């Protein structure tokens, strides 16, 4: 039930700190070692490339995961949309391993890929919130997201749990391979930092609601920009806004603005800029100046490490790789309040179903 909440979405946003703690408790032992199926790890360790297949928000979690696996497990990763990949399959590597990301475990676009790779006898794992789902049953291995039932159509806690579970697997694989970055990462500590960081943001709802009104009331278009990890995050932030507020939103690699999109910036256009990626931080600051010079109404969401006076939202310090777990939360709340302000059905937006079981 929704309990005291007006909408499932808000309840599910608020549950994210406890979901992080649950993932930590279930997958990381007291001594910091990772508790995952050793057989599965051995199988993944044979792979020369991982293929992450997903749709929508899960695809965006896959884009964040690519960087995590490449850094911690030193393995190349491709992230693919199920709806594209199944019918336009690229030349695969010699020893591919497939990871299906799906909250519901029922997404038909991803399943048709699984059917094909099963015919090819290729190994796979499903990361899902629904243990006995179709994708879970039809792949070789399953890792549960442990997010608890997600009822609102807009995915929130399943996105953050997917990133956390990807980090769990990447660390385990990296340690097996002896990768230093995996040994160095204290994931138990990082997930605790993530839980506290989310809590700090959800405790500021009145402020975020006010920002949402200041930036989005009466607007038909909005942009999210960022670089690196913040680019992947911008795609998810924009999707959240589109699907429940019906505001046209785009996520862009900040450096791409000048290659076309900046033509859309007018006086008052809302631009949400993410600065959690250290390498890209100063360049994104430059892009902020460029859009401000053209009249954009810029809101900055910056990591404590890179924050400057005047930034509207500060994200507590966290390992950059998994920082979207925290920095997505303001975007989830902006879209919630914008949807509410427009009188939309927040939990059941028009034209959408929770689980898309047709191709
Ligand atoms: O159940 P899945 O994770 O496979 O669903 C994939 C997408 O349909 C889903 O993430 C969709 O994009 C959500 N409505 C986003 O909030």
TrEMBL record:
Keywords on record: Aminotransferase, Cytoplasm, Glutamine amidotransferase, Repeat, Transferase
Main location: cytoplasm
GO cellular component, one term: cytosol
Domain SIS intervals: 40-179, 211-349
Catalytic activity: D-fructose 6-phosphate + L-glutamine = D-glucosamine 6-phosphate + L-glutamate
GO biological process annotation, one example: carbohydrate metabolic process
Entry GO MF terms: carbohydrate derivative binding; glutamine-fructose-6-phosphate transaminase (isomerizing) activity
Subcellular location: Cytoplasm
Entry's EC annotation: 2.6.1.16
Active-site feature positions: 354
Enzyme class: transferase
Known role: Catalyzes the first step in hexosamine metabolism, converting fructose-6P into glucosamine-6P using glutamine as a nitrogen source.
Assembly description: Homodimer.
Protein name: Glutamine--fructose-6-phosphate aminotransferase [isomerizing]
Full protein segment contained here: 245 to 603 of 603
